[in-house]
Amino acid sequence: MTNLIREKRKLPFSFKIINSNIIRTLSQLVEDEAFLVRDESEYYLLYSIDASDTTSFESVSNQIFKEQFLMDSKVVQRVIMRFYTLDNARSIEIQIVHSIKNENFDNYIVVSGNDSTWVNGILHRISEIIAGAEDQSKINSRYGGYLMFGLLIIINIEYYRLFYDYFIAVGGWLSIIAILGFPVLSLIILAKVFEEVDRIYPSIEIQTGALHMQYQQKRRKSLQWWGATIVIPLLLALIYDLLKNIAY
Predict the structure, then answer these.
(1) Structural domain boundaries of the chain?
(2) Is the per-residue pLDDT at 145 higher than 80?
(3) For residue 193, what are the contacts with CB-CB under 8 A and spacing of at least 6?
(4) pTM for this structure?
């Protein structure tokens, strides 16, 4: 008799860099589970890939993820792995989506089945593989608003300290625009900067394709260079100058 009550567990995940090796390891686990039931029951197994160039691919074999093939030649945006027996005794679904915010919890593992021990065991094994993936920085997600607000205050205080008297002395419409418009302009520029930081530090990053195709990695290196050589020294100089003037 078919079990009428099945256990179902869902585990969303965020702030991970999922590379080709992690995807292959997950697919091998799914493949192994399908192999175990091949003589006992019929099953459904499908792997799918959506790439950034709008192409999509499907296969009933995890060879779709093999080296020197799609995973190494395409910038992958979505990976889905689905396995279930036709009697619904066992089911695994894994979805990985390149996500800036992952607000809708698009990245998840779902395991269900008649056997609670099997469900929890598979979920634990998959979650260990995900946990082994490289962590993505959470700094912009957790502290982005505070950082932007702090920078906005420092930049505007320093701007008015340096130029306010000059604009008042000069007078005219241009001076009024310069005085009143700078806070708005600085807010717009900082918002754009932090939007770009979100794009290069996405909540879930699928890292596939040739190195020159990996936008986030290239932009992170560029950002780190600009930060280390220009932005941080300039910001420290502004803070030092501000504190020096407050002290005197």
Answers:
(1) 7-135, 139-200+214-247
(2) no
(3) none
(4) 0.76
